[in-house]
Please model this.
Amino acid sequence: MPDLIDIYHGSDHIIEQPVFGEGKSYNDYGRGFYCTEHAELAKEWACSDDSDGYANHYQLDPSGLSVLNLNAPEYNILNWLAILLENRKFNVADGLPQRARAYLLENFLVDYKKYDIIIGYRANDSYFSYAGDFVNGTLSLSDLSEAMRLGKLGEQVVLKSKKAFEALTFMEAIKAPRQEYFAKYKSRDEEARTKYRQIASKPMAESEIYILDIIRNNWKNGQGL
Model:
């Protein structure tokens, strides 16, 4: 990471001083301060409830901070999914989905809680369907990877530790009018849903790898991926 990075948090109000320890515990990576490196995306998130909002702009000094980048070569999509399964609230049906959840948590969960900052995909809204269908056994591993690579704009930077919060400097609050950015938010969401429907409608192929194959072959982290 560079000496200083600009990050943005979309909200319906101005947040000059984010408070460590606040926030929902069942977000993608647990409790933390969720940001993006893209101001325009933060504006869309700020207006997701069809109300005016702000892209709160900060500069982050990453020196001395430990960073878990889940998109780095040493990690794979199943590491991200295991973290998601540990934190997000959603119904997992009996049978294969429950078995898949337990297997992924046992074999692919990384020690993410020790890091100051996490960089990874954002699973809110349409993207959450991809993870659910993979665990249910109806989406292949390659289709899951393709779906989550729909664009870097789906990445988020999450501040997890008090040390990371202290490295944050508020710069400004950029207005995000709902007349413009709610429409953009809805358009991006619909585009993701359309691509998802295209991927999900593909017939299951014997050459593809599904969660049941991963369990049957006893794949471990770093093997075969």
